[in-house]
Task: inverse folding
């Protein structure tokens, strides 16, 4: 059974309400392999919109337990057997239901989460061939080391709401975070009109309006949370190039390391959407960020069409989480001051 959230907040939020919907047929969640995807694209012809575009419209889901990076136990292995896929799925449930350590109230368990199923890929990253993120640049590595050290020392900055990441503040997951699986509500509604493609992201309610008319990117001095996207068609594939990112996107450590580090103002993201049959889409993106990574990298995330609506993700910056986090930080400071006086 799949659960969808009418109201949902990040892990720090106090309240989440759910509504149970009919389960998605197992067949629609069939895993895709990179090889199968490539072969299928050559033989299937998508329907067309009234203005002649390949029709990508509908509501799509990309929930998956496949990790961003290839685990060391699968080194040198690109795809999994059916038995290994089942083992990965079972392990994901165990991980979600593991009791929290003493003193930790815990977060969501598998009842709340929409993890989906593992694909037969051993990692979402398909390039580099080892399925791992490329090395960070020295500057980015220094920044990541500082973050890791702060985490190790239990430092959790909360002097103001601006110290908290944008995901926690219900503003955005940025890109490519908004297009990646993680917790729940991994649903995307694609709409097409002459000259535009719109991608409505259920999680954190981002709406991407992508022009297809060949216009130039915004001036370099204009930076946006989701960057500035421009689309074009290459055969039946929608190619979206996004630039003009801000370097202020810093996500929580619950995200993959690439998103923890955050992207720089030199980042360039290229996404490719290719419908491979009536119910499946090959989605992949390439990140070229010379300030953060020593080389570009590519991830492939299969998407399946679902017959369910998009719900409002009613997470907002004034939710209970932020006042409680800041109030808790002040209490910790008072306790530390009292201990120092003793």
Result:
């Amino acid at each position: 059974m799949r659960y969808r959230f009418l109201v949902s907040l990040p892990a720090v939020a106090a309240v989440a309400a759910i509504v149970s919907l009919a389960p998605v047929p197992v067949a629609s969640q069939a895993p895709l392999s990179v090889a199968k995807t490539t072969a299928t694209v050559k033989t299937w012809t998508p329907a067309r919109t009234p203005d002649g575009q390949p029709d990508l419209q509908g509501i799509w889901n990309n929930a998956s337990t496949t990790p961003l990076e290839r685990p060391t136990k699968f080194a040198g292995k690109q795809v999994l057997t059916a038995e290994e896929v089942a083992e990965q799925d079972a392990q994901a449930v165990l991980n979600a239901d593991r009791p929290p350590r003493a003193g930790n109230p815990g977060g969501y368990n598998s009842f709340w989460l929409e993890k989906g199923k593992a694909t037969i890929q051993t990692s979402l990253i398909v390039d580099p061939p080892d399925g791992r993120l490329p090395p960070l640049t020295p500057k980015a590595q220094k920044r990541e080391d500082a973050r890791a050290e702060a985490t190790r020392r239990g430092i959790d900055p909360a002097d103001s709401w601006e110290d908290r990441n944008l995901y926690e503040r219900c503003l955005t997951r940025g890109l490519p975070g908004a297009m990646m699986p993680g917790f729940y509500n991994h649903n995307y509604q694609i709409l097409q009109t002459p000259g535009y493609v719109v991608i409505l992201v259920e999680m954190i309610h981002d709406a991407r309006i992508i022009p297809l008319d060949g216009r130039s990117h915004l001036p370099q001095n204009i930076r946006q949370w989701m960057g500035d996207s421009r689309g074009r068609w290459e055969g039946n594939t929608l190619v979206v190039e996004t630039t003009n990112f801000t370097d202020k996107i810093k996500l929580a450590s619950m995200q993959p390391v690439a998103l923890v580090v955050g992207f720089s103002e030199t980042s360039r993201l290229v996404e490719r959407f290719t419908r491979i049959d009536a119910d499946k889409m090959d989605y992949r993106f390439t990140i070229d960020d010379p300030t953060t990574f020593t080389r570009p990298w590519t991830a492939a995330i299969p998407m399946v069409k679902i017959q369910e609506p998009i719900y409002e993700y009613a997470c907002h910056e004034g939710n209970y989480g932020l006042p409680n986090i800041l109030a808790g930080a002040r209490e910790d400071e008072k306790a530390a001051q009292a201990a120092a006086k003793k």
